[in-house]
Amino acid sequence: MAGALRDFFRKRRSLVEPVGTEFRSAVNHLEDFVLRGGKRVRPTFAWAGWLGAGGHVDAPGTHNVLAACASLELIQACALIHDDIIDNSRTRRGFPTLHVEFARQHRDKGWGGDPEAFGEAAGILIGDLALAWADDMFHGSEIGTDARQRALPVWAAMRTEVLGGQLLDIVVEASGDGSHGSALKINRFKTAAYTVERPLHLGAAIAGADDALISAFRTFGADIGIAFQLRDDLLGVFGDPATTGKPSGDDLRAGKRTALLAYALESADASRPGAAATLRSAVGTDLSEADVDSLRSLIISLGAVARVEKQIADLTDRALTALHASSASSGTKDALHAMALAVTRRTY
Amino acid sequence: MAGALRDFFRKRRSLVEPVGTEFRSAVNHLEDFVLRGGKRVRPTFAWAGWLGAGGHVDAPGTHNVLAACASLELIQACALIHDDIIDNSRTRRGFPTLHVEFARQHRDKGWGGDPEAFGEAAGILIGDLALAWADDMFHGSEIGTDARQRALPVWAAMRTEVLGGQLLDIVVEASGDGSHGSALKINRFKTAAYTVERPLHLGAAIAGADDALISAFRTFGADIGIAFQLRDDLLGVFGDPATTGKPSGDDLRAGKRTALLAYALESADASRPGAAATLRSAVGTDLSEADVDSLRSLIISLGAVARVEKQIADLTDRALTALHASSASSGTKDALHAMALAVTRRTY
Fold it and tell me: PROSITE patterns given for it (chains A, B) (predicted)?
């Protein structure tokens, strides 16, 4: 994947050079961002979808499919760079976020105007570039006219769904909509469709999978994707900082509207109004370690953790059943089974 | 053009509906923004490029070419929505800018958090959606495999160049780089390539134009595009508010780094240091009408206006010479000639 991405950036140089050093520097930051990191989850699922639907690694043109799958990393670069502006995040993958880095450059050089505004402007434009280049890389990948035709609606759906999920997310956060229905809908579109379901679907469509296999992959992807987000929600409250890389209980301080919190509030509203009031007033504030600890106990005692764990287990079971009943190649079944457990397992 | 865009938005409904009312509302705002307005300059040039290279309005598949050209309006929607965030602009096309509109909704509904931050987040995401949908509309336009193959590198260059030009623009503004070389480079990539040269090139590539015609269109487009921006720079200082819709002398108050200002500073530095100091200290501040008037006289007396007018005339001449020497169809030559004069003529 990294090779395909490096190759794409190399080929872009002839477009970038004429605009000059300022643009080249911005592009270098984007390339570093893309190559440095992440777990390549989306390309890996897309690749698995292709292999599982009959793709062969030693067939001619395999490198074109690899490039099409790798282009998902550029969508993800846009999503992260723009999300970090929206969430005002300071670090990402162990480095300053892009807009923070450009604000620093502005400050170091003693330029005019507001460094933060400059950083955000640069982040918006570099994110846009990543999104445009994702399309260029995908559509330029020469996977063949038929494969491209089959993949086109999946590609369109994936990008629309993740942006729809993100928009829903900011509205739900602002409006304080604490329902578990909204939380699960955000999980569905912002995480599951974008991270697992559509990448698998995309790879399978490129390989020319039949409807039954695509349907199985989509069921697997949607269920595992939601389970993955539910596990992430648990980690955001109960995770070990050494594992998550984030301060313990960070989601509680940030007031993130997760299904976990929704379940806790629903349970409290039904039977323990005092606990509901405590939760509502505490979440989203600057909590001490002791506050976080007592909120954790409260959330557990309200049965919310058990409910989420049960949901993760049910979703994973359903996903694995759909996978194993499908016509996917056996090597891919094993690989997807392992990935499903890896992204949903309890690690705290 | 509006019909093709309306059609595209209609077909997107099946993707938008499942995400829910919040997303549908955001998409409706985008659709209103795209359909409401603008002069459709880029699709018109792309269409002219196609016609000029042998496209026929009554040929089968013409509506597909129209859709491919109309997709440029979605790129422009992203560019404007994100630019308005970057420039902190309050109004656009006679309406509140998108981020201002979403901040208002946030405020009206009494939601939590900062209304301005919410507005910006919504604007970033809706701009991203416009950019992703531009690609979907273009690549879904069924112009044929060969035409698509020819158009692909032009499409890629256009989006890369405009983002490169915008990045250069924010760096030049922040760094206070007052050289006319930088100003002209921004004109070249942010305006000329994106507005005239590449749209013409795109249409011609779809039609299968030969290298000589493409070269002529690109010369015409680059020259007229730069001349158009130079005229816009003059209007930003000398324009009648009734015509431009902006306060008189707005570019002087905003401190915009135009070629006009660069020429004035270069001339002053060479012969009138006092005038140079006056210009540097005044530009970018909250100027009175009288201040603006005296800066105008100063800029004229430094010969900067005459230099820009000469450059516009030279560029227009060169562009028209290339156009008329080309193999473009005669109807298109007439249309492009008229458009060239319309976008570069003196109107104040």
Answer: POLYPRENYL_SYNTHASE_1 (PS00723), POLYPRENYL_SYNTHASE_2 (PS00444)
